[in-house]
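@channel anyone free to eyeball this complex?
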Amino acid sequence: DTEVTQTPKHLVMGMTNKKSLKCEQHMGHRAMYWYKQKAKKPPELMFVYSYEKLSINESVPSRFSPECPNSSLLNLHLHALQPEDSALYLCASSQVDLGWVTGELFFGEGSRLTVL
Amino acid sequence: AQSVAQPEDQVNVAEGNPLTVKCTYSVSGNPYLFWYVQYPNRGLQFLLKYITGDNLVKGSYGFEAEFNKSQTSFHLKKPSALVSDSALYFCAVRAGSGSARQLTFGSGTQLTVLP
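replying in thread with the prediction:
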């Protein structure tokens, strides 16, 4: 069983809707990530939070808005999405030690998003 | 810049036979190398990593990988494949310097183990 929990597992939304994806971990990790993954492709990094502060934004469109309310929670707010945004959205967490030495990520099972 | 290549989109192997999934990398300085596996409709799972030390790294589920600096390779291996090993495998690299805070994933290799 994964120790990173993502909800919902499936989400269908229209292009005018506002929805949120949620991620929770209780491993004491202080780095959390959002990735986007298309079928049979590698995950693409979207955002990285370190100690609850946004440290990497990979030029993601503003219709995706991340939020890290505390060290255990990570949200991704969605608004006015396009059909091409349909994908599996993966949350991950990791330790932050010695300048990110470990690099080992723990992934959730993902939220499969369909934009109509 | 750092990059990783997985030259095979698909690898098929018979159950009980040894398997190899190939990975080559390019990075400035010392590489930190990883293998992840993704089963259908699941997130990625960490299998093993090379940071420093012994060139042969052992990981989860009987997998191992051999770091070869001269060939800049980090191939994933298993002596005897199981049908349940069928999945999508990703190699990943990050530079050893402290400023590299993200992994670069390869394109993935679909492994199918035939009964």
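from a first look: Chain B touches chain A through 26 residues (CB under 8 Å).
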